[in-house]
Structure formats: C-alpha cells, structure tokens
Design a protein that fits this description.
Layout (H helix, E strand, L loop, with lengths): L2 H21 L10 H10 L5 H14 L3 H5 L3 H7 L6 H19 L12 H8 L7 H12 L8 H9 L9 H9 L7 H14 L24
Length: about 220
C-alpha cells in the first residue's frame, strides 16, 4: 500500500467516526424488494426524492402488477412517472428492463439475486441501458444489505469537497477508488451519513462550515 493510499484510508476512517458521533450510526433496516428498489432508484435519477417517490407511487397505483407495466404502452408509463422528470426516457428504459428480466428469469421476484455475488449482479445489470454503477449499487445496498458504497450526486460532491478523491474525479472513478478505501462493514453508515451531511450542513451552494463536524480537517472549509 502506498503512503497516499494509507493516508486516504486514515482520513476516510476519521470522517466516518466523526459523522457517526454527530449523526449516530445508521443501521440497515432489513431486506427490501429488489425490483421495487431498483425501479425506485431509476426514477430518482436526475431529480429529488420528493419527485421520484411521487412518481413511484403513481406508477404502482396505475397498474395492478409488474407484468402490466411490462406490456403497457410506453406513453402511458411516462404519464404515470411524469413528476420524476425525463419521463419518456425513463419509461422506455423501465419497460425494456422489465422485458429483459422476464426473458431472463421468467419472474419479477428477483430477491434471490441478493444471495448472489454482488459483483456479478452489478456487472450483469450494468449491461442494461439506464442502470449504471450508482443505480445497481444503491439497489444492492438498500435491498440486499451488501457492504457497498454507492456514489450518488451528493456523495460524489462531498468526496471531492472533503478531499477524499481529487477534484476532477468522475463519479465512476470515485466509486472505484472508494470501494477499496471504505472500511469493511461501513458502506451503509458512510453513505447514509454523507447524504445527511450534504442535505443538512454541507449544501452545494451555501455550506454551514461552522456547524460541520468535519471542519477541523476539511480542506475546503477555509475557502468556502
């Protein structure tokens, strides 16, 4: 291990400890339905939780089950998920993903995937348009409880602001770098607490540095 890698791991461990002291240690609440979590995560792309959750509720209220969505006209799916934004694109992708699932497994009960190697599941699902590493990682963590560290928009922004990855690092590269640096068993806690930090204190445009539990070692604090 290089000196830089050792220092990065040390810094991340410190951040995790400080966040858990400030917010508490989040505990994974237990299994969720795999497909429900995946579709909800797809709807959350490029929008906020309020809009994506409203879209998901309307989607499920508009159809009796997943087979009905799979065979539905794309325009009708788009109308149901309009509040999530990019409705036409997301509707087309959801319909195609459901079709792929049914052709592959003949069922929409995909909870058995939680017992498979998460790396294999991740690689398989990333072959589908609309499912990137963030979307499948979120699904594997929240639905299955796998010890992964998803990098969404909030997490990516904070990893750069805290100096945990170089400033110009892409979200995909951040995921790859952090995967080997986050201590085992801390993926869920770190992910959830970073999102809490980003929403409550370290907001994108106006961070409240004086309230931040990480200000002592945050390289961005003096210049924000």
């Amino acid at each position: 291990m290089s000196a830089d890698e050792h220092e990065a791991k040390k810094q991340i461990k410190w951040v995790i400890v400080r966040l858990e002291k400030h917010f508490g240690e989040p505990v994974w609440p237990g299994r969720r339905d795999f497909l429900e979590t995946l579709i909800g995560t797809i709807l959350s792309q490029n929008t906020n939780d309020k809009n994506s959750e409203a879209a998901y509720r309307k989607l499920r209220a508009s159809y009796k089950d997943w087979p009905a969505i799979r065979t539905s006209p794309t325009a009708r799916i788009a109308a149901a998920i309009r509040s999530a934004g990019l409705a036409n694109q997301k509707a087309e992708r959801i319909k195609k993903i459901l079709g792929w699932m049914y052709r592959t497994w003949g069922t929409f009960d995909l909870n058995f995937l939680c017992s498979m190697d998460p790396r294999q599941v991740s690689e398989l699902f990333q072959q589908q348009k609309g499912i990137g590493v963030k979307t499948i990682s979120v699904t594997l963590m929240f639905a299955c409880g796998h010890d992964v560290f998803p990098v969404d928009t909030h997490v990516h922004r904070l990893c750069k602001r805290l100096g945990l990855v170089p400033a110009g690092t892409s979200a995909e590269k951040t995921f790859a770098l952090m995967a080997s640096r986050v201590p085992r068993g801390k993926g869920y806690s770190f992910h959830v607490n970073l999102i809490r930090l980003g929403r409550q204190i370290c907001q994108a445009r106006k961070p409240s540095c004086l309230q931040c539990p990480l200000r002592k070692k945050c390289p961005s604090a003096p210049t924000l």
